[in-house]
Design goal:
about 240 residues; alpha+beta; 5-stranded mixed sheet; UPF0758_N; hydrolase; protease; MPN domain-containing protein; RuvA_2-like
Length: about 240
């Protein structure tokens, strides 16, 4: 058993490390891009190494392999040669490297382009074919109309879908899309928009405008048919530019 003074010191060290971890996690959440390579690697190691200061280990990894790219390119056998890195941690870091390489290699092919009506029509049909309950989706695209993010909302009732404007604002603020494409389905089988649909389109278009994006189209899928607000000139009729 540790002497009382030593035990107190150990508890103090643990509390200090936990406080440091919480502070750096908060910084990641608020502005992760401002963190240094060492801090990011230190944070990553939190998931593999508990109750231990991972900053010296992160520094040793960067010193040994020269950069973050070098760390993630290293094999598990090389990683375990670094002080503080056991087999499970080496496997975890190596796994992260494998995921990063595959994500980078497939980044462009995985991002769908929604530039033309044909692109959007195909995408909407794929997403909504066979769905029996009403669903609302927002496709957020960049200036090249490459898909950045999809937000889907499904209500528990089959006859209505509601979108929380506060949630939408949060997502728009984080993604910062160039444009937004709205789509939902009518399980009843008729794609013509209702007054409620028009009201929702107006609200969503206004929210998009507040965040520097524009609503480029709103589509309704029903029984294989797709109604486009843009092609029907309904956006202009609703005062949406």
């Amino acid at each position: 058993m540790l002497p009382p003074a030593a035990a107190a010191g150990t508890e103090g060290d643990t509390a200090m490390h936990e406080g440091h971890r919480q502070r750096i996690r908060s910084r990641l959440y608020q502005n992760g891009e401002a963190l240094s390579d060492c801090e990011l690697l230190e944070l990553l190691l939190f998931n593999a190494i508990s109750r231990k200061d991972t900053n010296p280990i992160a520094r040793e990894l960067l010193d040994c392999f020269g950069s973050l790219a070098g760390v993630f390119d290293a094999s598990p056998r090389l990683l375990v040669s670094v002080a503080g890195i056991g087999r499970s941690t080496a496997e975890y870091v190596y796994l992260c490297g494998q995921l990063l390489r595959r994500a980078e290699a497939r980044k462009e092919e995985a991002r769908r382009r929604l530039m033309s009506f044909s692109d959007v029509h195909s995408h909407v049909c794929e997403r909504f074919a066979g769905r029996l309950r009403e669903r609302l989706e927002l496709y957020m695209v960049d200036a090249n109309f490459l898909l950045l993010c999809t937000k889907s909302v499904t209500d528990i009732r089959a006859d209505e879908v509601a979108l929380d404007m506060r949630t939408l604002g949060y997502i728009l603020g984080e993604v910062r899309p160039y444009a937004v494409i709205l789509a939902h389905n009518h399980p009843s089988g008729k794609p013509e928009p209702s007054a409620a649909d028009d009201a929702s389109v107006r609200r969503i278009a206004a929210a998009c405008k507040d965040y520097g994006a524009h609503l480029s189209d709103s589509l309704i899928y029903a029984a294989g048919e797709v109604y486009s607000y843009y092609r029907a000139d309904r956006l202009r009729a609703l005062g949406i530019d």
